[in-house]
Design goal:
single chain, 362 residues, alpha/beta
């Protein structure tokens, strides 16, 4: 849904961006209509750039699920839980109840939609809320997403910290297990990585968003050495300006080489896996997703390798370092062709863009 805010507050640090611009903009703009149309725009952007599956966490997540189902984008849709009034959950005391109703509405109801829970962060949710949200997710066998260790000072923002670090805090609350996805983990230290490895929790790394907001850079090479389940994400159009995973792959593989000046710290092959099978596993989809094997789910893309910038083809690094969204010719999701010869078949793109511009007041 945050495509509405693309480019609205560029070149700011996370705290200023979030509290000075995004939260006020959300208070003014977020409603079911906004979430639906802006999610459709995001779905169109992702399908055209070759993404078949997204994990999303926001308010009014029913509208996100509906938009993705209509446009043919596979979605792990997570209803947000937060300890202050929010769209669709104006009474914070009912935030768990709202999320549980969302899970009940979508579980096993649509082949493309997997419902989940998104507890915003350990500083926007109190300890009791976090425990209750995770317990509810466990009852429903649903994935549980949470922002963690995104900024250096995050631990100071937690009202009742139970450990010296945000990830340690989550461990003390018994929130870390194989169904938990910690988003960002920029400031995860060695002990944090060990906690994540022991618990089996997954990580969603969003390097371009973390760079743009000057949050830092996750210890990705260390995470991969410990065999953590890591998926690659964009974070969103408001903090990244693009939902293009080709751009994200290229940046991720390069930026992690710069310190400590190690050209093999994160390889192109590892990055491609994070954007495909490892990403699918991290968000709970498991085997049969993000791979091209007999019996796998028919989610696939066709890339035009005849482009000048993709010639010659020596290695798996070609799509990572040289590929771009415009190389994607055809996209198939769950056996249905969503994009054919660069034409989006499932969305009226002109209407969708017009609706989003209207919502943006343009």
């Amino acid at each position: 849904p945050m495509t509405l805010f693309r480019g609205m507050a560029d070149d700011l640090d996370l705290t200023t961006w979030l509290h000075g611009h995004i939260f006020p903009a959300e208070a003014r703009a977020v409603c079911p209509e906004m979430v639906y149309w802006c999610s459709k725009l995001a779905a169109a952007e992702m399908l055209l750039s070759g993404t078949t599956t997204v994990a999303d966490g926001y308010f009014l997540e029913d509208e996100v699920a509906r938009a993705c189902a209509e446009t043919g984008l596979r979605c792990v849709a997570a209803q947000a839980v937060i300890d202050f009034p929010a769209p669709g959950a104006e009474d914070p005391k009912k935030n768990i109840e709202v999320a549980e109703r969302f899970l009940a509405r979508w579980q096993d109801r649509h082949p493309l939609i997997s419902p989940a829970v998104f507890a915003h962060s350990p500083y926007a949710c109190g300890n009791d809320t976090l425990r209750r949200a995770k317990a509810m997710a466990r009852r429903h066998n649903a994935p549980f997403f949470i922002h963690a260790a995104e900024t250096r000072d995050e631990i100071r923002m937690i009202a009742e910290p139970l450990a010296p670090t945000p990830i340690g805090h989550l461990a003390q609350l018994d929130l870390l297990d194989r169904d938990t996805v910690c988003v960002h983990c920029v400031w995860a230290d060695e002990q944090d990585i060990e906690l994540l490895a022991q618990s089996g929790a997954a990580v969603a790394t969003c390097p371009q968003s973390n760079a743009k907001l000057a949050s830092g850079r996750a210890p990705l090479a260390d995470m991969l050495r410990r065999n953590l389940r890591v998926g690659l994400g964009t974070d969103g159009a408001a903090s990244n300006n693009s939902l293009d995973l080709f751009r994200e792959m290229d940046f991720a593989a390069k930026v992690h080489k710069t310190r400590p000046n190690n050209a093999v710290a994160v390889s192109a092959a590892q990055t491609l896996v994070m954007a495909t099978s490892a990403g699918a596993e991290a968000v709970g989809l498991g085997s049969g997703h993000g791979v091209l094997t007999a019996g796998a789910v028919a989610d696939l893309i066709l890339i035009d390798l005849a482009q000048p910038h993709l010639q010659p083809t020596h290695s798996a690094g070609i799509p990572v370092y040289s590929g771009c969204a415009a190389d994607v010719r055809t996209v198939v999701v769950n056996g249905r062709v969503a994009v054919h010869n660069r034409k989006l078949l499932t969305v009226d793109l002109q209407e969708t863009c017009a609706q989003v511009r209207r919502l943006a007041g343009q």
